[in-house]
Amino acid sequence: MRFQDQVAIVTGGADGIGKEIARKMLAEGATVIITDINKAACEETVRGFQAEGFNVHSFPADVSQKNEVIEVVEKTKEQFGKIDVLVNNAGVVRDARITEMEEEDWDLVIDICLKGSFLFAKYTAEHMIAQEYGRIVNIASRAYLGNPGQANYSSAKSGVLGLTKALAKELGKYRITVNAVAPGLIETNALRNHPKYEKIKELQKRDSPIKRVGSTEDVANAVLFFASDASSYITGDILHVTGGRFG
Ligand SMILES: NC(=O)c1ccc[n+]([C@@H]2O[C@H](COP(=O)([O-])OP(=O)(O)OC[C@H]3O[C@@H](n4cnc5c(N)ncnc54)[C@H](O)[C@@H]3O)[C@@H](O)[C@H]2O)c1
């Protein structure tokens, strides 16, 4: 029960990796605020966890909208008294070759993956500084190394790593650590519904030393390490959850 009496915010927690992170933190005693742009999914996920007896709350919001982020952070502080852990997980892709990529595809991915992480870090850091404790875990991606067709996403995730390293240096003196997890290919509903699911799985098996697609649990285990006291002397770091694939 590493998170007993702790309060955590997980963005994009209605589905996929974020939902698994929330599940594992709840199982280890945390109070979890799940925030997501998809209000219906957010509420359904929270109802499911509440039925299991967990202390979990749904505060829907778009991470790229400053006022919505402030509202989630302030409501969390008012209702639960503190914020120990922030997991910046919300993210989207809008893939296209550079000549086909619309400005809107660029802006949307940067706004959600990068600006959203900045906004949540900025407004939770105020409270973490005051309480002299905090854990910020940013979900990057192996795509920061550069993926064809993902100029927007690769740039956003590289930016997330820059944000991680800058904040680690700023906030360390307040006992706040800031780290990133960079997943490779992870099996989520979106991947399972992909028309080329079987082909993608085969390629992953061929190209990665650990010959399988990653699970949401693989990622959540790494996030919980950074969110816990076991990592209190580690900051500004990146943990790759890629099955050993770095190219
Ligand atoms: N699945 C993978 O293979 C993989 C690999 C590397 C990195 N990642 C990263 O992991 C994170 C989670 O991805 P996932 O695969 O679980 O995706 P997912 O689509 O299953 O879940 C993402 C969640 O974020 C929410 N969301 C989208 N835009 C939002 C916004 N503006 N504000 C708030 N919530 C928003 C969605 O509604 C959804 O519930 C993302 O940051 C993604 O880039 C995923």
Automatic annotation (TrEMBL):
Keyword Cytoplasm set for record: no
Keywords on record: Oxidoreductase
Matches recorded under PROSITE patterns: ADH_SHORT (PS00061)
EC number: 1.1.1.-
Pfam families: adh_short_C2
Lineage top rank: taxon: Bacteria
Coiled-coil zones: none
NCBIfam families in UniProt: PRK07231.1, PRK12826.1-2
Family, as annotated: Belongs to the short-chain dehydrogenases/reductases (SDR) family.
Name of the protein this chain belongs to: SDR family NAD(P)-dependent oxidoreductase
Record organism: Sporosarcina koreensis
